[in-house]
Design a protein that fits this description.
Shape: elongated
Number of strands: 20
CATH topology of the domain at 4-155: Rossmann fold
CATH architecture of the domain at 4-155: 3-Layer(aba) Sandwich
Helix content: 40-55%
Structural class: alpha+beta
Largest sheet: 5 strands, mixed
Number of helices: 17
Radius of gyration: 34 Å
Length: about 575
């Protein structure tokens, strides 16, 4: 509630509305807020309007009427305080003809408000102005033309590798070159910690909780503290409160690899400023432009981890995920194995197929039950065998990997290229069919109804083929990454030689997934096959190691043991 004296003071007020935006181009100086104020105050005195109040929108486009100063003026009009609205010219009110016309012809008259546009010689007291609608259209055309020029310049700069967005958390603009980003050490260390926590198997919400507990300032508060203008409309109640969505935004941002990604969003037209997510195939990516905060291999691995984490990961009694969660898959239906704790004996933990028909109403006929402690032992023993082979004969180990990797690459490349050729041939065929259909329609050989039906069908297939070809080409370009991954795999095995213990980050470096098959046989002859697929190299069959015992029996718990029998290559 406003006091009676304040109501009396602003009742019958003349609103002097001033607006300035980047759309004004070369007219920015003449349209400056200060110049508009001086001119309107002078004209108000000439009109005998002494009780004035200024409403300002500095930096707001005329095509959007959701401006704070303009909305405040409308609120005061609704309250009955404003009797006159004065602007320098019609373009200051706005640059969208239908909306400007609505305010001039309907809104202001309905609220008994006099409207004056000084330079355009518009005064509602003089009656209807026949020139005003044409000027409004010209103002909109000006905005449309400016938008085209801005979009064109935006497109050119984006295609030249200039970053079109603000630097993400962890980077700042280089004071010597605003078009380049440099690392901000404090925030960059937080980014590295977030990726490290993710590699250790922590989810978005848990990482957010850890950062909050450590009293690390969140990105919104970080930007606000530095006066960057990116701190949001309202300051957060707790500057150290992190959210899972903020963590995920950091983890999926490719800019941390040193890349610039332009055109991730777009707007539909010059009037609608809402940003819409662009299809990734329309992005323009420039790699290794600035100094990376995160190694590319780590970033790509995190994307794989997040892609596999669609279901909330099962946890132990202490709230932590099991070491092998997310790695184990059913060898028959290829669905994930879920982690469970025995309801009667809490010491027994196991994995079972999430698609099991009996318990989980899935389609897999068998449970694929495997003890968690047994699987840990199997993975440990297999990695030790791998490390022992590398240590005994590194040349032979590299040779096996090279043959395996090169063979997989050639096979994958041939398959992808064949699929691309098939899709391209079909696309060309569909284009030819569409052209003949159009010719038949133009010569009245087919009905309009049939033409519309078939043309929609052909267009849908062409779009599907285009997307398929684009996806296949991306996969083909990524095939060479397997060669680079071979050395990364060897380095990870070497690290295991140094620690000889299992950790989730190490498993994520070494293992892609593990297939667990249903048990076979009964009693002492009961066996269960497990196939470990390594990152970059897939499934490896190593020769026998004479110096090392192959079959190993390990006690997983009292009275229960597992015998590890590695598979060796067949002759």
């Amino acid at each position: 509630m406003q006091s009676k004296s304040k109501l009396n003071k602003i009742a019958g007020t003349t609103a002097l509305y001033c607006r300035l935006s980047r759309d004004d181009g070369a007219e920015v100086e003449s349209n400056s807020i200060a110049n508009q104020k001086r001119m309107l105050e002078k004209k108000a005195k000439e009109y005998g309007l002494s009780n004035t109040r200024c409403y300002v929108d500095d930096g707001y486009t005329g095509t959007n009427f959701n401006r704070p100063g303009f909305q405040q003026m409308l609120d005061d009009i609704e309250a009955g305080y404003i009797t006159t609205v004065m602007v320098k010219d019609l373009s200051r009110l706005g640059r969208y003809a239908p909306t400007v016309g609505m305010y001039m012809d309907n809104y202001f008259p309905e609220h008994d408000v006099r409207f004056i546009a000084v330079n355009d010689m518009v005064d509602s007291n003089d009656g209807e102005n026949e020139i005003a609608p044409f000027k409004n259209v010209m103002n909109e055309m000006y905005a449309r033309d400016i938008s085209k020029k801005v979009r064109s310049a935006h497109r050119i700069r984006g295609n030249c590798g200039e970053p079109l967005s603000q630097p993400p958390y962890g980077y700042i603009k280089d004071p010597l070159n605003k078009k380049k980003w440099i690392i901000e050490p404090g925030a960059a260390e937080v980014v590295r910690e977030i990726f490290k926590l993710c590699m250790e198997g922590n989810g978005n919400e848990k990482i957010a909780r850890i950062l909050s507990e450590r009293k690390i300032v969140n990105p919104t508060s970080y930007w606000r503290e530095r006066g960057s203008g990116r701190g949001g409309k309202k300051p957060p109640s707790d500057p150290c409160k992190w959210k899972g969505v903020s963590v995920w935004a950091i983890l999926q941002n490719q800019a941390y690899c040193g890349d610039i990604i332009n055109f991730k969003t777009y707007s539909k037209n010059f009037r609608n400023k809402k940003r819409i997510a662009n299809d990734p195939e329309n992005w323009v990516i420039f790699k290794d432009v600035h100094e990376p905060i995160i190694e590319r291999e780590v970033f790509e691995r995190v994307q794989e981890i997040k892609a596999q984490s669609k279901r909330r990961a099962p946890k132990n009694d202490d709230g932590e995920k099991h070491l092998l969660s997310g790695f184990l898959f059913c060898g028959d239906c290829h669905e994930k194995l879920w982690y469970h704790t025995n309801t009667i004996n809490k010491e027994i933990h196991y994995f079972a197929c999430s698609n099991y028909a009996s318990d989980y109403r899935g389609t897999c006929p068998t449970r694929h039950y495997v003890r968690a402690d047994a699987m840990e032992q199997v993975v440990m023993l297999e990695l030790r065998r791998l490390a022992a082979f590398l240590q005994d004969d590194e040349d032979a180990f590299i040779e096996i990997l090279t043959k395996k990797t090169n063979g997989d690459i050639l096979k994958e490349q041939k398959y992808l290229q064949d699929e691309i050729n098939k899709a391209a041939a079909r696309n060309e065929r569909v284009s030819g069919l569409y052209e003949r259909l159009y010719e038949d329609y133009a010569e009245n050989k087919v009905s309009e109804e049939w033409f519309m039906h078939m043309s929609q069908k052909y267009e849908a297939e062409r779009l599907e083929l285009k997307n398929k070809i684009s996806q296949l080409r991306r996969q083909l370009s990524q095939a060479d990454a397997l060669k680079l991954g071979q050395q990364s795999f060897v380095n990870a095995v070497r690290r295991f030689l140094q620690v000889q213990t299992l950790s989730r980050p190490l498993l994520q470096e070494l293992i892609d997934h593990i297939d667990v098959f249903e048990t076979e046989g009964v009693g002492k002859n009961r066996t269960q096959r497990v196939a470990i697929y390594y990152r970059f190299v897939g499934y490896i069959e190593l020769p026998e190691l004479p110096k090392h015992k192959q079959n190993v029996r390990s006690d997983t718990r009292r009275g229960v043991s597992v015998e590890y029998v590695p598979k060796t290559p067949t002759a």
